[in-house]
């Protein structure tokens, strides 16, 4: 409450505070009321969300290569905080593995980083270290695949293939293929 007041004083704008409770919290504490002062932040109880159903829906959407909405991304990031039947550490791993299958590189990286950041707050050090190892392996695999696709793209550029066709065939973004072309032109 004190922090909100200081923000209001500093910025002169309205402040809306949201407190997110994990599924472990069944009821939210009430706001504070003292004489003429009342403080009632918005409360979100993640136990109200069925993490199993949300995971299944996200998995289906990603496998069908449908565009993820902002809400889908938030659901993926907050998934381990929701009510579910899978142990939290396992769900974090599954959430990150699912995030790694997102076609859009920017969304994939943002979801993975945010999910790991949240996970590191509620997993013990040993579990967080294991998860970090999994991420390193996933990222190493992705880097090896991208390196191989970069080599293929360079060969196709030398053969005169169009940038858009190379991007489509290799799965690399067009701007990466364009950058590879510029590098080869400068050699």
Provide an overview of this structure.
Helix content is 63%, strand content 7%. The chain has a two-stranded parallel sheet with strand order 1-4. The protein has a two-stranded antiparallel ribbon with strand order 2-3. Helix 3 (70-78) runs parallel beside helix 5 and helix 7 packs across helix 8. It contains eight helices and four strands; from the N terminus they run αββββααααααα. It has helices at 2-11, 51-63, 70-78, 88-99, 105-122, 125-158, 163-170, 174-186; strands at 18-21, 32-34, 37-39, 42-45. It has 187 residues and is mainly alpha-helical.
What features would you highlight for this structure?
two-stranded antiparallel ribbon, two-stranded parallel ribbon, 7% strand, single chain, mainly alpha, 8 helices, 187 residues
Main beta sheet: 2 strands, parallel
Helix content: 55-70%
Task: Provide the β-strand percentage band.
Answer: 5-15%
The count of DSSP E runs of length 2 or more, i.e. the number of strands, is 4
Form type: elongated
- Low-pLDDT ranges: none
Strand-pairing-aware structural class = mainly alpha
Mean pLDDT: 82
Q: List the total number of helices.
A: 8
Across the major sheet, the strand order is 1-4
Order of helices and strands: HEEEEHHHHHHH
Distance between the termini: 60 Å
Rg calculated over all Cα atoms: 22 Å
């Amino acid at each position: 409450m004190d922090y909100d007041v200081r923000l209001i004083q500093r910025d002169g704008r309205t402040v809306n505070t949201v407190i997110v409770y994990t599924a472990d919290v069944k009821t939210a504490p009430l706001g504070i009321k003292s004489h003429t002062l009342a403080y009632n932040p918005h409360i979100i109880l993640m136990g109200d969300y069925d993490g199993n159903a949300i995971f299944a829906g996200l998995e289906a959407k990603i496998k069908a290569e449908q565009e993820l909405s902002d809400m889908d991304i938030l659901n993926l990031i907050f998934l381990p905080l929701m009510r579910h039947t899978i142990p939290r550490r396992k769900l974090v791993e599954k959430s990150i593995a699912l995030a790694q299958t997102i076609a859009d590189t920017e969304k994939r990286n943002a979801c993975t980083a945010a999910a790991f950041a949240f996970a590191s707050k509620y997993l013990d050090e040993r579990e967080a270290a294991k998860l970090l190892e999994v991420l390193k392996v996933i990222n190493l695999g992705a880097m090896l695949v991208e390196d191989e696709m970069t080599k293929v793209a360079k060969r196709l550029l030398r053969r005169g293939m169009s940038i858009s066709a190379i991007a489509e065939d290799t799965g690399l973004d067009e701007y990466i293929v364009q950058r590879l072309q510029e590098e080869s032109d400068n050699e």
